[in-house]
């Protein structure tokens, strides 16, 4: 084989090696891109799952959505209003609008306003519609109608016992609440949460207080 032929053969082999090297580099780059894409998908899926679990836990233990049924809280709330309620570390106090799972003899969830809590005394003057807590007449600018006596009136205890609250609807003439034995005092353990925000209808979006 002549020297010229040998040089050409060397050039061909060198070219083949360069081609193989380029192919290997390209394959490695493609493999790295595939690996990086897999990592991206895994990280995105992991972040999505963490966010989803967080939202589920938040909606289960901290915030819930409820729909107002009936007119016992008008004019503050309307039938069909959708509310966000909170329950985390909640302790009921006067003026709170709460959702309770049921009353003493009433199976449906109710939404009412807390009027008196454990350790407080409450009295209702049905002649004047005045409600007093611990001897102080409440200024209830949120009520509709007069505070009337309901059927099967509750014999209100001198002091609200531990673990209970006394509730009434803002629509005093159209609310079945703690004034009646059909609802009675509400165990704190039956309180699902406190109403915070109205999310529907959209033109009424905002705090319910």
CATH superfamily of the largest domain: Umud Fragment, subunit A
Question: Whole-number average pLDDT?
Answer: 84
Q: Number of DSSP helices? A: 1
Domain unit count: 2
Order of helices and strands: HEEEEEEEEEEE
Task: Enter the CATH topology name of the largest domain.
Answer: Umud Fragment, subunit A
How big a fraction of the residues is strand?
A: 15-25%
**Which secondary-structure class do the elements indicate?**
alpha+beta
> What is the CA-atom radius of gyration, in angstroms?
35 Å
Helix percentage range: 25-40%
- Tell me the CATH architecture of the largest domain: Ribbon
Look at the structure and give the CATH class of the largest domain.
Mainly Beta
Envelope shape: elongated
Q: Major sheet, described briefly? A: 8 strands, antiparallel
Task: Report the count of strand segments.
Answer: 11
**Which regions have little confidence, pLDDT < 50, spanning 5+ residues?**
none
Query: How far is the N terminus from the C terminus?
Result: 101 Å
Q: How would you characterize the overall build of this protein?
A:
With 209 residues, this protein is α+β, with helices and mostly antiparallel strands. It has two domains: 1-61; 65-207, Ribbon (Umud Fragment, subunit A). Helices cover 28% and strands 24% of the residues. The protein contains one helix and eleven strands.
Task: Give the helix/strand layout.
Blueprint: H1 3-61, E1 63-67, E2 82-86, E3 97-100, E4 110-117, E5 122-125, E6 130-133, E7 136-137, E8 164-168, E9 186-187, E10 191-200, E11 206-207
Antiparallel strand pairs: 1-2, 2-10, 3-4, 3-10, 4-8, 5-6, 6-7, 8-9, 10-11
């Amino acid at each position: 084989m002549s020297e010229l032929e040998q040089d050409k053969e060397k050039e061909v082999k060198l070219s083949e090696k360069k081609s193989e090297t380029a192919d290997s580099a390209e394959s490695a780059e493609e493999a790295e891109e595939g690996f990086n894409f897999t990592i991206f998908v895994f990280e995105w899926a992991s972040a999505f799952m963490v966010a989803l679990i967080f939202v589920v836990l938040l909606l289960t233990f901290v915030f819930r959505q409820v729909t107002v049924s009936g007119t016992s809280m008008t004019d503050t709330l309307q039938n069909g209003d959708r509310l966000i309620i909170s329950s985390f570390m909640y302790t009921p106090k006067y003026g709170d609008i709460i959702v309770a799972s049921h009353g003493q003899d009433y199976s449906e969830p109710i939404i009412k306003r807390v009027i008196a809590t454990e350790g407080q005394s409450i009295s209702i003057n049905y002649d004047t519609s005045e409600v007093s807590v611990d001897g102080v007449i409440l200024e209830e600018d949120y009520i509709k109608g007069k505070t009337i006596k309901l059927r099967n009136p509750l014999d209100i205890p001198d002091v609200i016992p531990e673990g209970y609250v006394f509730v009434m609807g803002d629509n005093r003439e159209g609310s079945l609440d703690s004034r009646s034995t059909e609802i009675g005092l509400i165990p704190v353990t039956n309180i699902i949460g406190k109403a915070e925000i109205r999310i529907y209808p959209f033109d009424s979006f905002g705090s319910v207080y």
